[in-house]
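quick one, two chains, predict together pls
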Amino acid sequence: DTGVSQNPRHKITKRGQNVTFRCDPISEHNRLYWYRQTLGQGPEFLTYFQNEAQLEKSRLLSDRFSAERPKGSFSTLEIQRTEQGDSAMYLCASSLGTTGGYGYTFGSGTRLTVV
Amino acid sequence: AQSVTQPDIHITVSEGASLELRCNYSYGATPYLFWYVQSPGQGLQLLLKYFSGDTLVQGIKGFEAEFKRSQSSFNLRKPSVHWSDAAEYFCAVGARFNTDKLIFGTGTRLQVFP
């Protein structure tokens, strides 16, 4: 069990560019979550998957954001036409069943800086 | 709507001193409650969680938290702080019947002096 892995750890991009982040959850975990954390704030829910199905999306997830989990294993989060307001830490977490049973296991995050 | 308030943005304690971090929640029923810790540049690690039963829960690293329904609080405590406890601490709440989405507080940064 290597934990939740996120790549890249850091990403600097110019405004208007597209970026994609990857998350590899703990292998037996069927649920995968994306959160965004801005400076001085707690994580905010973006979306989650059960296996390959995306079950809920936050209003924070504008149409420039898309997340996939094609085979129920790893997930990608893409941001199109990045804006400076997208600068944040993007956290991935996974769980076995609902968080009520086990809580999340978080990855170390991808820090995005839009210049 | 659910919400979490962590009134203390920054707390400084001396090593060996006791610690209490405050957390107040707003929710119509008894929620699921969590405390997470985040070291600089790292993800969040679960310290402890409360679902039901005994209102005093024990967690990792010597931490404990007490659920007080009458005060809508879930404060985190440690009797003797170590320098390695310096980090950011987040309280989170999950709806009892929909815990797939957690609401986090804004965090409390703990600084420990030798």
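The interface with chain B takes residues 4, 6, 31, 33, 40-45, 48, 55-56, 91, 93, 98-100, 103-109, 111 of chain A (CB under 8 Å).
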